[in-house]
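Handoff note, outgoing to incoming analyst
You'll be picking up this chain. Sequence as last confirmed:
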Amino acid sequence: MTSVTLTGALADRDSWSAANCTMAAALDVVGRRASMLLLREAFYGAHRFDEFVRRAQVSERITAARLKELVDEGLLERRPYHVAGQRSREDYHLTRKGEELLPALLALMQWGNRWTRSDGGRVALTHADCGSPIAVEVRCEAGHDVAADGIEASSRRHGTS
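Most recent structure output, in case you need it:
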């Protein structure tokens, strides 16, 4: 089994707590199934409430609650629009913060295609410019492929990036 190597202050796993883990914090924001499906639909171009309800196949009550949470967390923003003869309404658009979730959503989709669907999934994602399939990979900043056993985790110093 492969695992991340814990170094420095993290090496003794029993000496520290992951209570303030950023993964847990991220899941607090997007960890509900409906939230992820609504984000998927936002990436697929949905903007209006009825589109989210219909395409994500989530009840209106749950859709309203999750869209509010995603707006409150800064992943989506509301923008007013008006259709002639109707009252003014708001639609939803991804923010930069929301757009930065794309690799995470694609990684989940890629994993689901491989491990949950015998047919490999219904949607094939390709690069619009060259037609090659999209793949999510873990790489270091120097461009090397990295597996779990090639990762070292260390304590981040406060006040540094």
